[in-house]
Amino acid sequence: MELINWLLLILACVGFVLGFGVLKRLNNLYYALKLGKKWDELPPGDLAWPFLGSTLSFLKYFTLGPPHDFIGHFSKRYGKVDMYKTHMFGKPTIIVCKSEICRQVLSDDGTKFVPGYPSNMKALFGKKSLHGVSKAEHRKLRRLTTTPISGHAALELYIDHIEQTVISGLEEWSSMEKPLELLTVIKELTFKIIWNIFMGSTPIEDISMSEMENLYNDIAVGLFSLPLNFPGFSFQKSLKAKRRLHEILQSIVKEKRLVKKRKMESWEAKDMMDLLIEVRDEDDEGIDDETIVDLIFGMLFAAQESSAVTTMWATLFLTDNPHVFQKVKEEQEDVIKQRPPTQEGINLSEIKQMKFLSQVIDETLRASNISFAVFRETTVDVKINGKIIPKGWKVLLWLRELYMDEKLYPSPQHFNPSRWDDFIGNPGAFIPFGLGIRMCPGRDLAKLKISIFLHYFCHNKYIMMLERKYRVERLNPQCQLNYLPSPQPKDKCLARVLKAA
Ligand code: HEM
Hints:
- The chain is α+β, with helices and mostly antiparallel strands.
- The chain has a single domain, classed as CATH 1.10.630.10.
- It is 52% helix and 10% strand.
- It contains 17 helices and 12 strands.
- The protein has helices at 2-35, 55-64, 68-78, 99-106, 119-125, 135-146, 152-174, 182-199, 209-222, 234-263, 272-278, 289-320, 322-337, 348-353, 355-368, 399-403, 443-458; strands at 83-88, 91-96, 113-115, 180-181, 374-378, 382-384, 387-389, 394-397, 469-474, 481-482, 488-489, 494-500.
- Bound molecules: protoporphyrin IX containing FE.
- Protoporphyrin IX containing FE (HEM) is lined by residues 115, 130-131, 142, 149, 298-299, 302-303, 306-307, 310, 365, 370-371, 374, 432-434, 438, 440-442, 445-446.
């Protein structure tokens, strides 16, 4: 009897595995029939499970690690090639792992390739965010939103506030007796800076800055979760947080419009939201409240997570590599030596002279893989390198694979800012801020903010002319990482920030 039970159990298991194998084959067959002859011209790969495709495998490798095994799994089966086909985030997908093809895709003017973010990201970003609009509307809104966050004049305006926020943040953290979550406090600091640039010092009723920052964190969790809007699922929590933050932004726009009306001629735009309220196009039309809220919301989101996480990794890389820390410090001392005695604080031209510091930031963006991929979708069939990407398929430019490519970056796991000394890379080999018409409009601001932070972390000569630097002592230096939405230690980098001699 027991033998029969065992046999039945084994048969059930075999049936289960075969059943799923059949489903996978049927899914591939469905697309093969749909595409006809074109199917043979697709890159190698596997469409995997119906509906789910490789999404579960992606989530597994990006939550439990190691993330490079996700592509490793394809290259083991199909060889190391430029592109693979699969099915991800609800759509048939081509994953691109070659720098020249990434460049080709991003250089398109928005005719063949449009943004192709997963459906939950689209829902969370909003239809009128820069990520959501296309063609003429994108061009127009981009023009209006880029000026306040890029260019010398705009950046000069923000230095003082960034500097003061960073100095007081570092002082506060280093005087705390208990360990802190370094990532959490850097996110709070980044949020304060970005909020001030976008919204100025507009008071917000009934909600503190850290509560707002928590709303943002709740939204971030849903970006790559399963798009299930049911109780208990991260996506539902994210949608709820998004609604609340939208309400807050809406009330700020309303308040600002009232102030503008009241002050009339004496009203002056002081931040990005003011500029968006004030701006008129060629037909003398302004931007409606809903669009302003979506734009600011998308900007805040794009700005917050990536620059906070980059700042944290740069700080940790400097701490773990004392020779790099020392070189950064020496560069800063050289630049500051030439400062006139009357000048207080750092300025933009000094930051521009800090070439090695800029290399530290580039190397951090490469080695930590902040944005693992850029998302596109085809509007027509596109032929690249002899392979077809069918119309309506997603195209994932897998930046992570480029940055960890031994041929492009020898010893890629090694943090080595000097590799950028005379670096001449392949076109498209280093595109942490994207390329082309959708290249990150906040890249200069992000680099400015990170540079000021690292400057005061390594060499703080501001406070009462006392020289001060800091160091980070992690409580769990071997802590495992989470890779979504961006790589970060699971303990949020529990650490002490210490003043160093
Ligand atoms: C280290 C920090 C940052 C990284 C790594 C980063 C990365 C990127 C990348 C790769 C893109 C291109 C996406 C695509 O082509 O689909 C992008 C777009 C964008 N970024 Fe950033 N970003 C950073 C900071 C910022 C900041 C500080 C802001 C705002 C102040 C910002 C605002 C945006 C916006 C609005 C877009 C969409 C542009 C469009 O679609 O036209 N980002 N970013």
